Predict the structure of ABC transporter ATP-binding protein.
Amino acid sequence: MSLLRVSNIKTYFYLDGLELPAVDDVSFTLEENRTLAVIGESGSGKSVLVLSIMKLVDYPGKIIEGEAIYDGNVKGDLLMMKEKQMQKIRGNEIAMIYQDPMSTLNPLIPVGKQIEEALYIHKRGKKQEIKVRAMQLMTEVGIPDAEKRYYDLPKQFSGGMRQRIMIAMAIACKPRILIADEPTTALDVTIQAEILDLLKKLQDENQMSIILNTHDLGVVEDMAHDVCVMYCGKIMEKAPKEELFSHPMNPYTIGLIDCMPGRGETKERLNVIEGYVPHPSDFPKGCRFSNRCPYAVGKCYEEVPDLVEITPEHYVRCFLVEEGIPLIKK
Ligand SMILES: Nc1ncnc2c1ncn2[C@@H]1O[C@H](COP(=O)(O)OP(=O)(O)OP(=O)(O)O)[C@@H](O)[C@H]1O
């Protein structure tokens, strides 16, 4: 059953008299105990999308349309909830971890106390019990010597260990959904792998669903069950992971996969997608990828293609794919 069904979310920013569509008509479903990866270059709208689901978009941003139905009709539409209701959901049922643990951890408070705090906010309990649980959580996320390290400050931990502490805080109340926004981007590769393994272990143990934002297809390959490829606020392609990697169809996805080490045509050096993600004030008129797309034809520059189901469960936004026209580089 779908745990979260997001339909047609639009989150726009209003700046200098401009309307900037950071997330533009995004829909997806998150299934129970599965990981949905949202992949795209920096600026494609991944963070604004998950902040929208958590109702944490601040002025000058505004969610102008959409639904995020959590737990079928049991809990209802997150986007319609009052702030008080959302406070009960955040942390308790849907928790979030970020790229930079230091943005969440208080540098002046021992980490054990901060985990206790996460437990106190949502679950009442005896002081000693909460302390024991906080230590258990430290051990669960792989912090050795929890009893001793409990009193250490965040600065006494490495980046990877700080991320483990953040994860301990996030899973403290056994959330049903964990949103991980670029959780390993700031870490070096070996530590990255350890954190991803930890997330997989916790998913198995706690039956969590995960939304994982990343710009790294290697991380997607390792972690995801389902994938949404995002570009300029829109989903360009959506499919189960194996299908996406074996039959990528949208030129943007093909470009991203070509850039992965060990893939693509050029073996001597890594491929790149020419150009950069445009700012929302400067999106091209037709398909948002048209000005970087090596296959674009006339219509691509004029009209925005729809996201169309090409094969079962495999959705693609591209006129050429939709019309069965072979992709031939210009
Ligand atoms: N507070 C804000 N005010 C104005 N524009 C914003 C704000 N936050 C985000 N945006 C814009 O929304 C768009 C999407 O940004 P977002 O941070 O979601 O991208 P992203 O894919 O998560 O990239 P990154 O990984 O770099 O965070 C960008 O064009 C960004 O400039």
Remarks:
- The pocket of adenosine-5'-triphosphate is lined by residues 13, 15, 20, 22, 40, 42-48, 60-61, 182, 279-280 (CB under 6 Å).
- The chain has a mean pLDDT of 93.
- The CA atoms of residues 284 and 304 lie 10 Å apart.
- The domain at 2-93+173-322 is CATH 3.40.50.300 (Rossmann fold).
